[in-house]
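Input (structure):
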């Protein structure tokens, strides 16, 4: 037995009758054969926890658990009806059961009273999780993958713990810390950074640059000499966007079997995006980088953390994820290295502004000496209009189009802005600032919305209040209508205005949004509203620049088809998920305690340099904007 488990078991009275001691990641799990100790041993466990400062969970030995049928019967009697539809999932290897419910709070009971009673009467360890309010096949799939692999997960989590504690010490470490840029240094896309110490190799993000013209620039530079997949201890994913997670399933294809740390929404939305990427690649070229089996491996190896939950991930690195305000579940990653040797924050993408859906990025950390931050809008040149201005303008545009019975097309990215704009429109219609009209949501965007309904705790205060206190979930409003099949899409196109359509892709480079565009473009009553960044050469960019005639070439026949752009075209810039230049600088000045070093990445060269020099001028701290393949010694 690993030394620390030995210490824990020895610290308990012999009557504790511990049959097995395991790890679940960094947590210690004890299985007792003594029923009385299981129910009353809390004080003993607390004493040990205070001493070793590790999370310990006491469970009954599987042999003590009541059989599943009787357990179900007891639980169904205990749970009040207003908890909504519930489902019980057993994990017999770990003496755990999960109750899935529409209203988790009601299942838990006042101060946990109902869960406590379930535990006493069945000797299982119950936990509760939220059922998405909108049925979500993907979440069901993910939960099934985890359930079917209960046995594997138990061994996998135990192995992580062994790796963490094998070489573990409470003493402050000596040595060094360095970070190498394998992608997204002086560029956007393929975010990937390797953090190394004498004891650990950890990858921060593993993205893909889908806009790259050649394969060489598409993936992180994993052939760098520092990187060796055999030595990789852990991967941390800051958030679910392809430029931060898109290459991760490929690591599993290459044989990686270690943990992936992220929030639960990042795991779920990330899996959806990777599956969608496979789908598109198969349709377009037939050579996807990886298959759905590799995405499944990624899900099997995900270890989800809540915001502000502290967790050891290697023998000398402890991480905490904090809200980044960028998209659902997005995180700033705080790393406490070598028991105080160094404290590092990797921001991923962040927004230091309250959006209509999420709270702003966090600025307070227990300790921080160096920060690696994004600089997407790291230039004063790009004046981004405020969210409020864009919101007002959006409502005005829709009103005008509705008055002439036109149709509004909003090409959107699947994740982030689309959900934010849904919340804005729902609120405006609920409050009577905008006449009610149908908002059609195309397939993939809808799937992401469904995932959102499983994690309302991640929303900002106003939206949470609406859901938990007023029982009004904006995403459940009847103004939103899902469009799945081709037939449904045709019905929407043929229907009379006014209405709004939200569909991918965001730059009109393909997908459903392009189909709607062709249908709407020649009618001057209709309106196109672009809200995301439009890449050079994309149809969206050309329309932004005023193109009035679009030539489409039919694939097989090479027949040219000209579409006249008679609809109104608007481009709104204020809904970005990234901080504006001013907000980047605000965030930098508010970070507490003040870091000694800022490393600027995730923007084109001139922006990285401009932001770095502005930070230096304002704070007089060391700044750096590394190039690809550069390594920086943090300590
Ligand atoms: Zn992002």
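Output (sequence):
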């Amino acid at each position: 037995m690993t030394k620390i488990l030995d210490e824990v078991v020895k610290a308990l009275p012999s009557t504790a009758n511990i049959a097995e001691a395991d790890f679940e990641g960094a947590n210690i799990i004890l299985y007792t054969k003594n029923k009385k100790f299981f129910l009353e041993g809390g004080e003993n466990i607390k004493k040990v926890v205070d001493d070793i400062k590790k999370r310990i969970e006491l469970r009954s030995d599987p042999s003590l658990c009541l059989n599943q049928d009787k357990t179900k019967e007891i639980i169904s009697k205990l749970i009040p009806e207003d908890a909504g539809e519930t489902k019980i999932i057993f994990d017999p290897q770990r003496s755990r059961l999960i109750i899935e419910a529409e209203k988790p709070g009601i299942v838990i009971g006042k101060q946990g009273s109902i869960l406590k009673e379930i535990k006493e009467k069945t000797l299982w360890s119950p936990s509760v999780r939220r059922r998405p309010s909108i049925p979500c096949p993907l979440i069901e799939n993910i939960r099934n993958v985890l359930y079917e692999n209960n046995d594997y997960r138990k061994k996998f989590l135990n192995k992580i713990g062994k790796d963490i504690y094998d070489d573990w010490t409470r003493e402050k470490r000596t040595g060094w810390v360095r970070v190498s840029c394998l992608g997204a240094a002086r560029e956007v896309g393929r975010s990937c950074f390797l953090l190394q110490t004498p004891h650990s190799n950890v990858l921060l993000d593993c993205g893909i640059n889908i806009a790259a013209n050649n394969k060489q620039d598409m993936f992180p530079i994993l052939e760098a000499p520092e990187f060796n997949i055999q030595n990789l201890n852990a991967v941390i994913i800051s958030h679910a966007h392809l430029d931060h997670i898109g290459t991760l399933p490929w690591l599993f294809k290459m044989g990686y079997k270690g943990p992936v740390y992220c929030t639960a929404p990042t795991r779920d939305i990330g899996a959806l995006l990777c599956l969608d990427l496979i789908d598109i690649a198969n349709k377009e070229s037939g050579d996807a980088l990886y298959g759905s089996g590799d995405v499944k491996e990624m899900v099997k190896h995900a270890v989800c953390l809540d915001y502000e939950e502290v967790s050891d991930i290697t023998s000398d690195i402890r991480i905490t994820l904090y809200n980044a305000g960028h998209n659902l579940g997005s995180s700033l990653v705080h790393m406490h290295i070598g028991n105080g040797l160094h404290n590092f924050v990797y921001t991923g993408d962040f927004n230091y502004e309250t959006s209509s859906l999420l709270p702003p990025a966090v600025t307070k950390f227990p300790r921080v000496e160096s920060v690696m931050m994004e600089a997407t809008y790291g230039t004063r040149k790009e004046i981004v209009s405020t969210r409020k201005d864009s919101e007002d303008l959006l409502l005005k545009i829709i009103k005008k189009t509705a008055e002439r019975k036109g149709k509004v097309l909003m090409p959107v990215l699947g994740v982030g802005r689309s959900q934010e704009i849904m919340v804005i429109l729902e609120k405006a219609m609920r409050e009577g600032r905008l006449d009610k009209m149908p908002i059609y949501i195309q397939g993939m965007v809808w799937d992401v919305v469904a995932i959102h309904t499983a994690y309302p705790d991640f929303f900002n205060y106003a939206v949470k209040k609406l859901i938990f206190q007023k029982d009004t979930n904006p995403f459940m409003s009847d103004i939103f209508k899902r469009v799945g099949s081709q037939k449904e899409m045709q019905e929407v196109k043929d229907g009379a205005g006014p209405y709004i359509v939200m569909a991918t892709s965001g730059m009109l480079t393909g997908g459903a949004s392009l189909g709607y565009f062709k249908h709407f473009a020649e009618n001057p009553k209709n309106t196109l509203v672009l809200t995301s960044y439009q890449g050079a050469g994309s149809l969206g960019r050309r329309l932004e620049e005023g193109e009035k005639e679009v030539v489409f070439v039919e694939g097989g026949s090479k027949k040219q088809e000209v579409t006249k752009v008679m609809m109104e075209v608007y481009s709104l810039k204020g809904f970005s998920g990234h901080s504006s230049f001013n907000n980047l600088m605000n965030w930098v000045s508010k970070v507490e305690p003040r870091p000694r070093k800022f490393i600027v990445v995730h923007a084109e060269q001139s922006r990285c340099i401009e932001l770095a020099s502005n930070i230096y001028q304002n704070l007089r701290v060391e700044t750096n904007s590394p190039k690809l393949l550069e390594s920086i010694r943090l300590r």
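Notes: The radius of gyration is 26 Å. Residues 3-63 form a domain with the GMP Synthetase; Chain A, domain 3 fold (CATH 3.30.300.230).
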